[in-house]
Amino acid sequence: MVSRVRVWLNRTYAENVFFTDQLRRNPSDRAVEIHATHGDADSPVLAAADTAELEPEGLSPAAYVEYALAQCKRRSIDVFVPRLNQSAIVAHRADFEAIGTALLAPPPEAVAVFHDKVIAYEAVQAIGVPVPPWYRARSAEELVAAVEELEGAGHKPCFKPASGAGGVGFRMITRAPFSLMHLNGFPSAYVQLDMVVGALQQSDEPVDLLVMPRLEQPEVSVDCLTGPDNVLRMAIGRTKNGRRRGFTLHEQWLEPARLIAEGFGLHYLSNIQFRMFGDQPVLMDVNTRPAGGLHQLSLCGVNAPWAAVQLALGEDPGEIVPPFLGQDYTVVSGPRPLRAVSLPHQRLDETPEPRLPAMPAPADSVEVTPASAAEALQH
């Protein structure tokens, strides 16, 4: 009899309820037990798991690694999918392997390259992948100089943190003064240049921004699955153009993604994003983790989470080619069950540790929006 597979997802995105759904509905008909931890007791991922716990607050990365090792040992975790503190965790891969846990994450060298977007852009340029013009700004003066350079070349400037995940911190620069017009409708990603300059000048904290031209649609996110042998098993592009979404296998997107995934050893699941700069696709971002929208590949007949777990277990799924490309689609929000009762945040001095029940009560619900990149995570 084949034993069940125990998979742990630590503090992760709300959309990964679909990741857990796909693991349970795997084509191998293998029993899968999901363990989840989070800092938010009302995370829908906790409710979707078979067993769930609140994570301790205030742990340093090193202390979190010790906590993670203890979790894996106590829960007999076969495959750990780390999101929070990924860099620290992958540096201790041998320690996890020693207790029988495989990490579904790239090696530390690959994670380090793509943690800093400036280092990442320089690295991928060196292997021939096009990137947009960019400037690093650590002061108000450097930001203004970069904005003027981009505007002088006819571009619309924007910026984002040099390190960070997804679209967190992304803003577009405008010189239009703040007015009542900006209070109408929904909040915008546009921010006034003088307000940004003022904030940077008044800040006592270090600033590290990547300033670049606004890139145009379509946006193409290539979901990749790469083996520990650095050989790509899967590359499927998800396109986004306004509300319309679809899929592509065009080599103008897949070839640069392949160069990055194989060249930098992005083992297991990664997500490589491109947009247009003029008439050329350029790299926008690289995520060394499964994308929140990975489950959308099910519309192409592909179960990527299960293929990744198989690979982590040493069961090579072989090359994964979608049997068809799903029709264009859009995404809408929908309810997911929550636990019936919310628990307070766990603190380090609490004994014993509060634990969530194994199965949720479907009395409450939360709306999970597949379109969102991530829920607001408690760090």
Outline the structure in words:
This protein is an alpha/beta fold and 379 residues long. Strand 1 (5-9), helix 1 (17-24) and strand 2 form a beta-alpha-beta unit. It is built from eleven helices and 18 strands. The protein is 27% helix and 26% strand. The two termini are 40 Å apart. The strands form four sheets. The chain has a six-stranded mixed β-sheet. Helix 1 (17-24) crosses helix 11 and helix 8 (140-152) runs antiparallel to helix 9.
The helix/strand series, from N terminus to C terminus, equals: EHEHEHEHHEHHEHEEEHEEEEHEEHEEE
Rounded radius of gyration (Å): 21 Å
Q: Helicity, in percent? A: 25-40%
**Beginning-to-end CA distance, first to last residue:** 40 Å
The biggest sheet amounts to:
6 strands, mixed
By DSSP, the count of extended strands is 18
Oligomer: single chain
Unreliable spans: 345-367, 369-379
Q: Note the beta-strand portion.
A: 25-35%
Mean pLDDT: 90
